[in-house]
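Q: Can someone sanity-check these two? First one:
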Amino acid sequence: MSPRPRRTIAVIGGSGVTGIFGEGARTTHRIGTPWGAPSGAIEEGTVGGVRVLFLPRHGPGHTIPPHRVNYRANVDALVTLGADAIVTVSSVGSLKEELPPGTFVLPSQFVDFTKQRPTTFFDGGRVVHVSLADPFCPDLTRKALDLGHEIGEPFVDGKTYVCVEGPRFSTRAESAYFRSFADIIGMTLVPEVTLARERATCYLSLAMVTDFDVWADRPVDTKEILETMHRNVDRMGRVLGALLPRLAHEPTCACSRALDSAVV
């Protein structure tokens, strides 16, 4: 049986992305989950005629640090409200010269260096081993790549995201080590991507490079990161506004069948 068309797209906004509906009408959802409350109220509106849910990952006013985000509640609440796909926006550091600040990246792989976050919905009762061989939805990725080229905001794809615990930045030794196997570094991808797969939901990460990590011989400066982020947030907003309506079609991926062979 063919997957049903996507009708609702969820967006998890990272640093600087505080809303996507402009002056349009919206509904506010305050929803609880078995894992507690999500980061904040979830806004519902339309973008290009498509139902969209928006959740700020770090809460109103950016008050929740990356290691304290309730990722399970966030993903569960969005899926409960009908999300067929989750598109996330995050700021990342660059580990490579060819990815300067201002670059938009679609990661294709990740390496998990987090230490203390709950990473699964399946803590007992049944054992589930989902495959993360290809962590990101290929259908969403292809549409984002095509859209970026069309509107002159191309994404760099095929890159590896290393996710660290935070909230501190890397040491020089860590940054040099991460450079040997990854291209960008951030603090929020894991466990979002894993939880979306456990909910058999398409997931796409839109990463925005805000700085070179400390391998580049100058310490990471939070003020500089924020300035770069704010300069580019409007660009990302234009990408989202054009991309989200394209995602509300029948998917060509197997994300909705992620649990078919995962349950022991």
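And here is the second, same format, sequence then tokens:
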Amino acid sequence: MAEDFSRRSFIKGASLGVAAGYFAAAGLSSTALYKQVMPAEKLNQTDIGEVKALRMKVISETSWYDNNVLLNDLKGAGGLLVNQYTIPWTSNGVAAGYNGNNAGGFATYIEADLMDGSTKRILLDTGWNPAWMEKRFIEEGVAEKLAKKQIDYWIISHEHFDHYWGLEATLKYNPNQDVYVPKGFYTEGFDLLKGKAFPKAQVKNDFPHKGKVHVMDSSKVNPLFPGAALMTFDMPIICRVFGEQAFVFNVKDKGIVLVTGCCHMGIITYMETVRKKIKGGEKIYAVQGGLHISPFEDWDPQYDDLILALNKYGIQKIGANHCTGFIAVEKMISAKLPVVTGTKRNMTKRDIYLGNGDTLAV
């Protein structure tokens, strides 16, 4: 169904031309090296149409509860390039976790109002811990919409544990829901979807998927409906994951709205690619989701260059959360970037950015 990338191919890809440690964190975001890594390209823009309005509700941005626990799990398993399906992730005894489990999950519910008056409903990602994700799906009405077959698109941004492994919380309510995944999914990812369990990693799926699986082409813009498209970025990510896809919406009278899961490709790469490939891409009105700048609350002075660069794009709303990191958001606020704050509900740690249950409307 998709190319099964070997560990050797992954490591080779991860090491080509870049410093693996820096780019694993920055995701090719640094403007200092951007022109060297991403040479100038001619514009070849696609007209994706327009939507009337957009609402993005954060179901869960709490992918895990304790950074140290997660980092120790990775270190104990052998490092960042170890296959995520072979790591014995901590699932009990975590004081800050949900019922002691360090696993949480990321998911966003999106409503797009079309020009014809209809509304498209989208579920981006499905989290990690099925118990936590089901709780959040019920609380925010997503479970009911799944059961009533009211979700038009189920999109998986990438194969990482915290975005994909909670799929039981989705499939329990609608095993026939079609799913859109990026090019680069491994055999394990498709096997999990079909119902295979991975006991060592403590991940299973008791609700085998019966719908269609759409593997998105990374060589082109992939329209979903008028005013919305997916773009897939090919790159190696930690835990032997490959490729990530993200949304591009064009909102009438506002401009481009970008919605991302983790943004491993880097926010600058994301915006520059949209500028080159999407009609109207030079006017980015809002960005929502994880921006993968300081997910473990570390900071490298090179990231300051990224914060300064963001100010040059004229973004009107930044709904950052998840793997953006609190330090990064503090830096954004200090730089007077238009960060949208949250309400610190549903186990969200701070109100400095959009948290669980908060909505960004455009």
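A (reply): Looked at the second one. The first strand starts at residue 51 and ends at 60. The CA atoms of residues 178 and 212 lie 5 Å apart.
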